[in-house]
Amino acid sequence: MKKFLLLLLTAAVLHGCSSSSAPAEQPAETQPPAANEPATPAPTQPQEPAPAPEAGQEDPEPTSDMTYGNDIFQKVTVTKTGEDTFEVKGQAKVFEGVVNYVVEDGHNELAEGSFTTSAGAPEWGDFTYTLKVKKAEPNSTLLLILFEKSAKDGSRRMELIIPLPEK
Questions:
Q1: 77, 164 Cβ separation under 8 angstroms
Q2: Are 121 and 74 in contact (CB under 8 A)?
Q3: pTM of the predicted protein model
C-alpha cells in the first residue's frame, strides 16, 4: 500500500511539473509575433523623418531641417538664412491667426513678438516669418518658443520649443 501511495504521489508531482511547463511554452509561441512587431515599426521610423526634407526642400542639407509640431502647430521648419536671420515656416491653428513667439538662450529673452497666419482657428493657417535675433553669448543655443496667448488670462498655451539651427 505504501508503494502504491508513493507511486501515486510521484505521478501527481510529475503531472504537476508537466502542467506548469506547458504554460511556459505558450509565451514562447507568442514571442515570435512580438519579435516580428518591432520589425514592422522600424520601416515606419525612417519614413517619419522623410517628410522633414520635403517640407524644407530649399535647404541643401536635409538633415539640418527638422519638422516640429504639436496640437496647434504642424510642419514647422526653421532655416538659417543669414548670420542672425532665420526663416520660420509652418501651419498653425490659433485664435484669430495670431502666433506669439519668444527667443531665449536659456537665461535671457532676446526677442519677442507675434505674427499672423493665413487663417484663424479652427482652420490651419500657413505662415512664413523672418526672424532676426543675435546671440548675447557666443556659445549659447537659441530656442524659439512658439505659442498661443490664452484669451482668458494671457498665459502661454501649447508652447512649441524649437532650437534654432547653428548653420
A1: no
A2: no
A3: 0.61
